[in-house]
Amino acid sequence: LTVPRFLQEGIKPNRKGARMEKLIYGVDTETVRGKPLSMQFYSEDIACDEIIFCNERDARKKFLKWCSMRRRKCLHVIYIHNLKFDIIELLWGMHERLIEDGSEFSFSADGFDIRGFYGTPTHCTLRKGSDVHIVLVDSFSFYRGSLAKAAALYCPGLPKLRRPAAIGERTYTASNTRFVEYAMRDAQITFHIGKAIEELHREFDLKQ
Asked: Is 122 in contact with 138 (CB distance < 8 Å)?
């Protein structure tokens, strides 16, 4: 793991007050011909092992509904490997807002204030009132290898699985257990990358 330059240049100990409880997740998406097909959520910090099937009409609403159901008064940190790609699928329907003002974006959707940067790196925060606080972090900014290589390093008991036939072109459903296992495995691997990054944050006393 490496500390991205934008963090290296600003590293300073975090000494301000008590820290909010933090929960870590690994999230991934699958697409069909470039449009949303499913989103996968995994965590071992809490009970979370879920795949949600979606399409271009309801992907954003389903993602933000999942976000709105998170525990209150808690920081939820979602790691995604190559967030620049997946954030488009998660916010489909308003994804063009990510680039309308250059690299910085800020807009509201379904009760959430959504803001961040789109590019290298991509970063996003979602807030709903004062109770729901979610941060999307690009794990690729810290670990620039593939998910297969990451699995060998951080969770060797959970190797990346072989891609199902015609993935990206075929509309898979929940009845296809091989697809579900494949899709969920990527979220599991990303969770373990996220936990390793969190250890890096603790080492340098960084605030997310």
From this structure: yes
Cα(118)–Cα(132) distance, integer angstroms: 22
- Contact partners, residue 124, CB within 8 Å, separation at least 6: 83, 87, 114, 115, 116, 117, 135, 136
pLDDT digits (tens, 9 = 90+) for 56-88: 999 999 999 999 999 999 999 999 999 999 999
Among candidates 69, 66, 116, 68, which has minimal Cα distance to 94? 116
Cα separation of 187 and 193, whole Å? 10
Residue 61, judged by CB atoms within 10 A of its CB (0-12, 13-18, 19+), counts as middle
Strand order across the 22-32 sheet: 48-53, 35-43, 22-32, 74-80, 132-138, 123-128, 112-117, 104-109
pTM: 0.89
Joined together, the tokens standing for residue 147 give 């998910």
